[in-house]
């Protein structure tokens, strides 16, 4: 009787029992998924590079960076081999033409961070930090492809553009990006930064006495600027020069090389619309908000800045007509690109980016515009003879993982380049070869 009664009860409540079993199974699946996600997140953060804030001397600090990067390289390899990372990189290859005094160092830092995290193979100059500038780019200027890499993933060091040479070296699906800046402010920055590097500017400085060297130069620029003198490339239309255009052969028609530029670059960023440019860059390269966070790099101190009067602005525009024309042209192209993205969507994404970046800056940066004398060698930007370049202090109350991220956020160009080069090749950046005269 008991067994029969039990069978009747099971049959009567069969639907309820089935629902209970399904509910328990569903809860177990949710709990298991949560644990897996938590484990994955933990492993990712544990894999970040750790950089101690201080060391006893510059050489030791460099050794700390390279030593920790060896460990990070192994961690990246482990993550690549895991089921969570089936491919080496999720981002397409990218060439970033780093133009002078346009905010390009900030973009380069972003690409350095992304490439380091993703285990990218960088196309580095074979010597020093630039691709034999001011010569036009050649494949021969690039260091060897590292063992185990089938192609280069990122090129973002200074060069003078040659599209044909680049496309010989980079994969067919490479994304090409550059950045332009309003020509008046850009030229003033170039003049100030390279006063003692560009011969035309140096001559004007010597002739100026106690007057403004920029004003003296602009009164009669042809008397100082010799287009055939090496080093004068940035003395006139510097952005056009970086893009491979020729000041002397420009005839103000729409030349084939300008058409080539428009067809080559999927994105020409605009410094005056930097956040909008970052959103469009992130869309092209499949980057998230944290990867797009940035601080301004290679920034002059406030004491190195001088306001420009209307006469000086007009003279700069007149002297740099090709840059003005180029900037205005690509500014229109930029907004066409933005309209295709969707202006409403762009505004929303810019707001999200600014909020995310502000949180990261508050977390990382203790002080900005720090004079170079107050900066450790590891985070001191390279200084010119004519201006003061400031840097950052990062917060002290950070975990080692946060410290590694924040240090890279503020790390100057030369130090980051040298660090990544050592990680990739196991040797220091080489000097220019010595030329012997017989």
From TrEMBL:
Assigned keywords, A-Z: Glycoprotein, Golgi apparatus, Membrane, Signal-anchor, Transferase, Transmembrane, Transmembrane helix
Gene Ontology CC annotation, any one: Golgi membrane
Cellular compartment(s): Golgi apparatus membrane
Molecular function in Gene Ontology: galactosylceramide sulfotransferase activity
InterPro entries: Gal-3-0_sulfotransfrase, P-loop_NTPase
Transmembrane segments: 12-36
Any Gene Ontology biological process: glycolipid biosynthetic process
Main location, first listed in the record: Golgi
Membrane topology: Single-pass type II membrane protein
Protein family membership: Belongs to the galactose-3-O-sulfotransferase family.
Protein name: Galactose-3-O-sulfotransferase 4
Source organism of the structure: Parambassis ranga (Indian glassy fish)
Gene: LOC114439992
